Amino acid sequence: MSRRVRIRGFLVSALVLAALLGWGFAGLPDFGHFAGEYAQLLNRVATGERHATNVVTSIVFDYRGVDTMGEEFILFAAVITVGMLLRETRDEGRRAPRDEVRSDAIRLFGVSMVGATVLLGLSIVAHGTITPGGGFQGGVVCASGLALVYAAGSYRAYRAAGPYEFLELGESTGAGGYVAIGLAGLAAGSALLANVLPLGTAGELNSAGTITMLNAGVGLEVSAALVLLFHEFLEEVEHR
Amino acid sequence: MTALVPLLVAIPLIVAALLVAAAQRIHPLAANVTAAAVAATVTVLAVLLIFRTSHAPIDYWFGGWHPRHGIAIGIAFHVEPLGAGVAAATGALATAALLFSLEYFAEHVQPYFHALMLIFLAAMIGFSLSGDLFNMFVFFELMSIIGFGLTGYRIERRSVLQGALNFGVTNTIAAFLIMFGIGLLYGRTGALNLQQIGETLRHRQPDGLVVVAFTVLAVGFLVKAGAFPFHFWLSDAYAVAPIPVCVLFSGVMSDLGLHGLARVYWDAFSGTLGGHDEAVKGVLLVVGCLSALVGAGMAFLQASLKRMMAFVTIAHIGAGLIGIALLSARGLAGATVYMVADGLVRGALFLAVGVIMYGLGNPNELRVFGRGRGMPVAAIVLLVGAVTTAAVPPFGPFVGRTLISQSAPGIVTAVLVVSGALGAAALLRASARIFLGLGDRRDPLLVAPPTGEDEDEGEERPIGLGLLLRLPAILLLAAGLGLAFAPGLADRAVQHAAQVENAHAVALHTLRAAKPPPLPSLSQHVTTASVAYGVLSGVLALGLAAFGLYRRRLRLPGGRFAAPLLAGAKAVHDGVPGEYVAWLTFGAAAIGAALALLIR
Amino acid sequence: MSYLPYALAGWLFMIGLYGIVTSRHLVHLVVCLSVMQSSTYVFFLAVGYREGASAPIFKDYPLGKPAVDPVVQALTLTDIVVSVTVTALLLALVIEIWKRAGTVDPDELRQKQR
């Protein structure tokens, strides 16, 4: 099929598809007037039941905790797969170390920011049950803090900050730990991922039972996974 | 006993995490054995669940969140015998694939591979049991990611990457379509639980939103299943993925697309689209028949066994889709039994192809012509398996296909017979060439795979006893064929299908703890007509295979006309991602437009 | 006015799809997929929005007052993570294709079948 035929055929189908989507969207309630029962119920009861002021976090880690378990393993599996794919054909010999940042100003600024960024990330993870934030968000910020080491410093420093084994252990602990906490719920007589720890008081750091632990586990896994991802791609750059 | 349900998913996941944590320290064979053991355990648990749910479906609410006033606030696994059967087949195929890889890969893969296979297993089981639409999506994506990752494994050749890339791009777009479907349904019903969506939509006239939501969800699942015109990625990807992974792809992953479609239709849409079921039936039947015919036709044109098996899978998906499209208890039961039995047989066939690749280095029937004479086990598995894929009585796939054809109009039965026969003929022809050295050595009408695609191991390796290479194939074949002899299989399947289709009662049982839906007492009889069709299919397969072997000696006229047509068909399957996506858009638009026009 | 967010989602989806079909560079193709991903985020969040309501965080906001839909926010969060991983995996594949085939033009990846 030539390119022109393909594009023309596509434009026709795309118009039809767009029209269909528009027709479907027209059946949705007006923007701003959504009244789903599920959502309203959770908004009313979640804080009371789970002592977590951030309802979204309580949904992610408790009411719909299985989705998050699946999602964690998506991240886990993807990072392992990227590692497998890229390591296979990497030419371990050649190195092109052009990664030294030469400007002192950038290095100073970057290094001072690393600590602040990682701390911010940890804070976001820890406060996930109280204010906007959580394991995923905070984990990404932590990982970017470490990426700053590369951007403002050198690749070697970045690699020193996290060797492969350590990162993979972190990832596995995060992912496996999530399932383990879930199984603890099972062992306690309830269902998988039931919240079986004392709930504490809403608004305090140590509240919401297993939600906080799951949150921390996810934070660990996401930071480790993303640092590993950057690792793999940076290795490609370095070994060109 | 209900506590077993989450273990089906939790155990493989946690063992996978442990394998990765220990990856540098553990020996690959130990990891492989562990993985196989876990898969076997999961299979046993799934079989137990089939029996445990034979009276009433089990709804397992994660986190202990039971529904309140009919509103589902947690996520449930809705376990009933048909879904549990698919889960059990998944486990069996995974166990066989992992045992096979003990010898096929031996020490050349790291524990990461086995961990990924376990996560893949967990994802497929989660998808087949889940009762929540978004949860299904999460497991769908988990399956897809590992799928295209593993397809690209052992990257040494250009074509491998294309298969993985096309798999990735098309399945990701399918996932987006599913997301839109979820969003549309959520916007209308405020619910994500399938039963709750069904209840909220029930008895309302379907409007644009419902039709479009069904279209995008159906297209999303059909892309995963590999139905026409969404099948292009499948032939590329299956043809290049490593054998143990293909076993899972062909035996189960594609079928899960159909299972998802059936679930979503019956639980969520049957209440509202039920009044227009002729429209839905018509559209899905057309897609199914086209998939069956295109798949079988393209299979016959292939010379590489792996690509051939990919197209045979597509053809059989078409047959399964026909079963579901009939929107009846018999159709659904037939489709499920067919998918399970035929899936096991297809897994066995892929393992046999694996033996050929291990021993001879190449699965192309023209390149290893006659060199398979010393491989009796692989030959038997391939020949027997090939004939059974034509749904010859009295074996497993026949039971399933009979249930389908008994409730299908005549022309559809003809399509089933022809497509089954063509696919089987292709396999028989290839086996005859490889193992028996029959037929012409060259055939220009056959597609040769692109250069570099099949030079997998390249060298021939001595197989020796090769127990682990052969035993899994024999066991899978026996299981697939022997399913027919499970007492009362057809009856119970239809009964449970009828139970599933009683969506309102199921929903009340799930959401409001009402009585479980009743099990109607129906009994199925195999008519002489079905036996005749099965035998006809087998005979046709043998005839077509002979034709394929000796076509050139017959000097039939019309060869000059056939060649450009076939060349056109082959050229379309050529691997450019943009084209596959264009076909996807076309398919989605066509299905949506057809449904829109018919449901008015 | 009230359908504009949905129209935006639809537009992002279609333009991303067009980009993929006409793409001449694999990295561009993967980024077009990202654009399509964003369309799903916009869609979900638009579905759940409530006028005059605040975020579903009840720390300094009294319980009982209207808040937007927290469920779609949880779904979008999951969606974003999934999208990140898919993008990463596809980019890894693109790197491999470039290494092996020397090209990143999708049309040049056409398989030659005799």
What's the SSE blueprint?
The complex is a heterotrimer of chains A (240), B (600) and C (114).
Chain A: H1 3-25, H2 37-50, H3 55-63, H4 65-88, H5 104-126, H6 135-152, H7 155-161, H8 164-187, H9 210-238
Chain B: H1 4-21, H2 28-52, E1 58-61, E2 76-79, H3 81-104, H4 111-129, H5 133-151, H6 158-189, H7 194-201, H8 208-225, H9 232-240, H10 243-273, H11 277-300, H12 305-325, H13 329-360, H14 376-389, H15 396-406, H16 410-436, H17 467-482, H18 489-501, H19 503-512, H20 528-554, H21 559-572, H22 577-598
Antiparallel strand pairs in B: 1-2
Chain C: H1 4-21, H2 26-48, H3 70-101
Helix pairs in contact in C: 1-2, 2-3
List keywords for this structure.
heterotrimer, A: mainly alpha, B: mainly alpha, two-stranded antiparallel sheet, 22 helices, globular
Q: In percent, how much strand structure appears in the residues of chain C?
A: under 5%
User: What count of helical segments of chain C does DSSP give?
Assistant: 3
Q: Any idea what the CATH architecture of chain C is?
A: Orthogonal Bundle
Output the CATH class name of chain C: Mainly Alpha
* Secondary structural class of chain C: mainly alpha
- Give a count of the beta strands of chain C, DSSP E runs of length 2 or more: 0
Q: Largest sheet of chain C, described in full? A: none
Give the overall silhouette of chain C. elongated
Average pLDDT reading of chain B = 85
Count the DSSP helices of chain B: 22
Task: Give the largest interface.
Answer: A-B, 70 and 81 residues
Shape of chain B: globular
Count of individual beta strands of chain B: 2
**Uncertain spans of chain C:** none
Largest sheet of chain B: 2 strands, antiparallel
Structural class of chain B: mainly alpha
What is the rounded distance between the termini of chain C?
55 Å
What is the string of helix and strand elements of chain B?
Answer: HHEEHHHHHHHHHHHHHHHHHHHH
Helix fraction of chain C?
Answer: 55-70%
CATH topology of chain C: Helix Hairpins
N-to-C CA distance of chain B: 47 Å
